[in-house]
Amino acid sequence: MIAFVLAEGEPVPAEKRRFYQGQIDRLRAEGLEADLYEFSDQSPALPNSGTVAVFDIECRKFLRRHLDERRIPHAPLIWNPYAFFMIGQTWVRTSSLVVETLVPGMAAGQMLQKFALGKPVETITVSANYIGCDDHVGPPLASSGRPLIGCFGAGRLVIDFVKSVLIRRMPELVDCQWVHLDSEMPERWRDDLARCDTLFSFRSLCGSAIPLMDAMASGVVVAGSHGGGLSGIADAENGIWINSATLEIIAEELSAGLSRLEADPAWRRRLIDGASAVAKNNSVDATFPGNLEVWRRLIERAHLVR
Amino acid sequence: MVQIIYVTVKNLDLPIGGVIVQAAHVASLRRAGFDAKLASLHEKGLPRWVDQDAVFENSNQLAISPDDILVLHDSLPREVFDRFLAMPVRRVFFCQNHYFLGGTLQPHERLADFPIDAFNCVSEPIAAHLRSVHGVADPIIIRPPIRPGRSERFVKKVQICYMPRKRLVECGTITYRFRYLYPEIADTPFISIHDKHPDEVAAIMAESAVFLSLSRNEGLGLPPLEAMANGCVVVGYHGGGGLDYATPENGRWYDEATPDNLVPLLAETVSSLRADAGAFAELVESGRRTIGGYTHQAMDDALLAFWRSFL
């Protein structure tokens, strides 16, 4: 059995829950046992023997201690390859219970295979059942009355700076509705995203892109940065991707992108279609067969440890 | 005599770059005969980490008359900003970081629409922002001074010094990838200057061939300039405000959303320096020329010219 463990206090639990649940549903459909465990100080619930645990490598030592005490083999998931280097990793190499590490995305996987982790590195695709799918197609900005721009992934100072520049360049944006979106509040995220004409993404460095895929699957044009989560996927045909670390440049390119979206409905349509195709190609159904091979190898390795 | 009152933050227990610059203004103005002072609700007097020619007064004990001038900063809470605007005095706005203005203003508000008599700032990127976004016609740039480079001749080691604070995640990614993806130069030391005394920072920079710039959303960004003063090859982010000085001639600047391509740039720099210590001699020399605009004399000239004209 594969136990996906979500520990209290770890980053982006809502995103991970969606990924884990998507895998659990399909593993079960394949006849394999899988379940989600929510682990906290108050409720340190974990599966019994015969299990291999998957959890974010950024988890607290508390979880690892419990796994070690119960002799449960585990495969830490390097959910954010950029933040991986912020934490100690000696235990990955030294613990006999660590059977392998899991890395989201081919590029990060190839890179981490060069590091001396001391354990096999398996590449998986992080995906989920994206919200919206094909039932919402954003209307052109010019004809939508009071356009709604969603802002995602940055603090208020950054977003307000960009807004102040945009409003000066495009005075009509004063009448626009601006909504700060938080993908860690799933219900609200779902409702607000569906209303957006455009999503400004300031996503910080990460290894996955579930929230951006939600927007892309929903017909909402994404403009901004993907934080590395769509490296090798994001291109000029599926979003207004901005590769700069300078807010003035980001604001300038967002302004140019919004102007073109307004003036060129055909381009907007192309971006929406391109994004939709990306979301389909990276859907949980499309990517699960590749992951399934990884899960099968994980189960075999866990058996060897016991 | 007219008081020139630089309003500053309440908590002055730890060194703050912006306050050091405010105090440098006050000290310079006092040396020129002006009645300038720093004022805040801080209760422990003038901090030791600022120019000791500056004078500090507690705001609660300060008598202000209509002839006096308040110098406001860019990180004022809105209610404090509004209170200062309601006072019957003249006001100068001194902006050291335009990225912070959202803490005071709503995005649709323009500084030019408030009763402020003049605008100062520390860099051209801020001045450009004040002009284009805030409708300020004539912001005056008063660049702060940086510590001169060490005069002794240091033998440069091929090591990388860096200030990690503004980009911790990138910093970890860069150092780790550098070590594992470039094994032939993996023994290159990385030396942090975080929380080091300025004298120690200068000494580290003076013996380091490379400074990894991890600037983010800066009004100006002094560490890369200090590194140039100490003869380092600067590699990395300019942080926006650093465009006041960053050119292809004086640094290996990087401006991408992820650090993925910064690692090979840094590695290539180190490999070149290992092969030839003078590989970037022209760039280093250009850096030394760049810092000519950031001296005490240059600041005094701009500062006193502004105040003599304004008063």
Describe this structure in words.
The complex is a heterodimer of chains A (306) and B (311). Chain A is an alpha/beta fold and 306 residues long. Chain A is 41% helix and 17% strand. Chain A has helices spanning 13-29, 61-69, 90-94, 106-112, 156-169, 186-195, 210-217, 247-263, 265-281, 284-305, and strands at 2-7, 34-39, 52-56, 74-77, 101-104, 121-124, 148-152, 177-181, 198-202, 221-225, 240-241. In chain A, the strands form three sheets. In chain A, strands 8-7-9-10-11 form a five-stranded parallel beta sheet, sandwiched between helices. In chain A, helix 1 (13-29) packs across helix 10 and helix 7 crosses helix 9. In chain B, 33% of the residues lie in helices and 17% in strands. Chain B has nine helices and twelve strands. Chain B has helices spanning 17-31, 78-86, 124-132, 168-181, 198-207, 223-229, 262-275, 281-290, 296-310; strands spanning 3-7, 35-40, 56-58, 69-72, 90-95, 118-121, 140-141, 157-162, 190-192, 208-214, 233-237, 252-253. Chain B has a seven-stranded parallel beta sheet, sandwiched between helices. The N and C termini of chain B lie close together (11 Å). Chain A binds chain B through residues 82-86, 111, 114-116, 156-161, 163-165, 167-168, 174, 204-205, 225-228, 231, 242-249, and chain B through 98-103, 105-108, 125, 129, 132-133, 168-170, 172-173, 175-177, 180-181, 216-217, 237-240, 243, 254-260.
Mean pLDDT of chain B: 95
What is the helical fraction of chain B, as a range of percent? 25-40%
Instruction: Report the sheet with the most strands of chain B, covering strand number, pairing sense and barrel closure.
Output: 7 strands, parallel
Listing every helix as H and every strand as E from the N terminus to the C terminus, the arrangement of chain B reads EHEEEHEEHEEHEHEHEEHHH
Task: Give the radius of gyration of chain B.
Answer: 21 Å
DSSP summary, beta strand count of chain B: 12
Element order of chain A: H for helix, E for strand: EHEEHEHEHEEHEHEHEEHHH
Strand order of the largest sheet of chain B: 3-2-1-4-5-6-7
Q: Terminal Cα separation of chain B, in Å?
A: 11 Å
Name the structural class of chain B: alpha/beta
Roughly how many Å apart are the termini of chain A? 13 Å
The most extensive interface, with participating residues per chain, is: A-B, 36 and 38 residues
Structural class of chain A: alpha/beta
Assembly status: heterodimer
Overall average pLDDT of chain A: 92
Number of helical segments of chain B?
A: 9
> What form of chain A results from the Cα inertia axes?
elongated
